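User: I'm preparing a small set of examples for a lab meeting where we compare how different chains pack in three dimensions. I only have the primary sequence for this one, and I'd like the structure in token form so I can line it up with the others. Please keep the answer compact; I'll paste it straight into my notes.
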Amino acid sequence: MKKQLIALMITIIAAVILIVVSCIVFTADLITLSNIEKMMVIVGVSATMIVVPSVLFVIISLRGFTRKNKTIQSQKELISALSNNTDDVFAIIDGKTNAVSYISPNVEQLLGISESTVRGNFSEFDKLARSGEEKSLSDTLEALDINEQTEWDFEHIHPITSEPCWFHITALCREIRGERKYYLVFSNRTDEYKLKQELEYAVNMARTSNQSKSVFLANVSHDIRTPMNAVIGFATLALANPEDTEKVRDYLSKILSSCNNLLSIINDIFDMSRIESGKIHLEETEANISDIFYGIKTIISEQINAKQLELHIDLSDVIDENIYCDKTRLTQVLLNLLSFSMKSTQAGGSISVRVSQKTEFPEGKGVYEIRVKDMGTGMSRELANRLFEPFESADGVSGTGLEMTISKNIIEMMGGTIEVISEKGKGTEYVIMLALQLQEKDAELAKIKELEGLKALVVDHDSKTCDNVTKILGQVGISAEWTMYGKEAVMLAKKSAEANEEYQVYIIDRQLPDMNGIDVTKQIRALGDKAPIIILTAYDWSNSEAEAKEAGVSEFCSKPLLLKDLRNSLLNALGHSENEPNKLKGKRLLLVEDNELNLEIAFELLKSSGFELDTAENGQVAVEKIAQSNSGDYDAVLMDIQMPVMDGYEATKKIRALENDELSKIPIVAMTANAFDEDKKTALESGMNGFIVKPIIMDEVVRVLEGVLE
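Assistant: Understood. Below is the structure token output for the 710-residue chain.
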């Protein structure tokens, strides 16, 4: 700019000189030059004095403009480079027209709107910048004083990616050559905001986890102390009343029930630990669906009766009963669900279990739906959604809060799904879907020749039970009719006798709408009908057994009725027994146990079950006794693991290394409190044939010994 001013001054000076020279030329007495020549001199001098400065002025001006354009271009390139490599969008707005005079080219990348759309279009920019705020952008900017700035945050949904973004806007007002300009910077804070959200979530989760664990510890403390209180209390009462056999028996029964409850709590805690560490695994073996539910009914029947509940189990829609699954784990899941239902259902309510097999299923598999439904208190949708989370429990239902989490994990490990459907005050339904491998050839139901071709009458107050029992009877070769009323049953019995088409068996519910089962039995017997009569009941029948037998009742059968129950009751009522003799009676076992109390308990339990026993206090003694024995002296060894002198693993290895083949191959079963899967794996790897977990349950001992002694 200075150079341009200098060139202009030179031009003015040259013009002044030109005027002076012209005056001198025209006024001087220059005789030697003609007027034409004088004019030529003046023109030449003028041209020289004007053109040269002008050219100089133009050259200097052009060079200045070129440098200025280069500077402006460099600045634009710099701003563009900066904006493209930052998470900020820059904008300049004219204070008079509100036109967007500049927007950085990264606006499309960060905000999802093209540069051409925003530039000059304040209305679009206003929508973008205020992002739904009540106060418009123009009002916000106009409220600013010169050199004042304001800041705010806004959330923006990127129109291209549909992802939420968070920006921080800084607006500054400046005055340039008397005109207001607004400078805006959109700073992308998405990563910071997400990090903040994650941190807040982590803090909330930690706080919730701590609260849940505190509740869990309180629940566990309560649930452990409750059965322990019962154990100690009833044991004290038993010692105080040794002469009252009936009381002592009752006390011992309650002690056993409390101990089983305590063991269940301990198992839940260990199961959750193993699930979280990934150490739990499934053992799929041959299983039968009816047998699984028969076992479940046997386990919970006492609790069902104690709470005066009705339990219905319907397997009538199951076609393929023989499957492969982890029977123990599936039983555990179903017991957990039934336990929740029993705790939330008041006396007089009912719980139903319905198992159905779907028609569409993968080749070689059966798809089974298991529904456990109760008439309990129900739960809110919010709680239902959280029920499978660790340490959660339904309202008013005591427990560790691990049962449902464990159940969900087991079902998912089996490749199935589990969901809960509930409404406050209207009960709860648990729905399990499982695709289970079918056994290659589904074993045919063993139809008993003594039962084939018989005709039966089923009498029950519930039509579903009638239909279910009728289907079960059909499976063993018995045709059946049914009614829901006692009077109608007596009438049908009379008509069938008159038509010489007598019923060969009656199955009658204990409680009917119009009369009870014993009264129906009396009236049928009054007709001279001597056919076996089986009474169905959901409750303990011991108090009325004598009266029922006197009335002519042949057998009792507990509800819910399953095929195994009905077969046994029918065979007993008809004078046939399907009970197998005890194959293990008289088998000689070597019991290896270092703890005197455990030894005494195991010895008496095994002895009462018909086994002959010898004992060893540690592994070394066990090895010596086996090595010095003759073939056939011992049928099997029950081996503890943790013992002094020599543990069970080492003892097993030494027995397997004996030179006498018959002695070295003796069946050895671990009987230990080391209950984890890895313990079982180690036992089998050391040469053992089976595995029993303490505290011992005789049914499990018998099952394992039957397996290794076959």
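A couple of notes for your slides: The longest strand covers residues 164-176. Residues 190-240 form the longest helix (51 residues).

User: Perfect, thanks.
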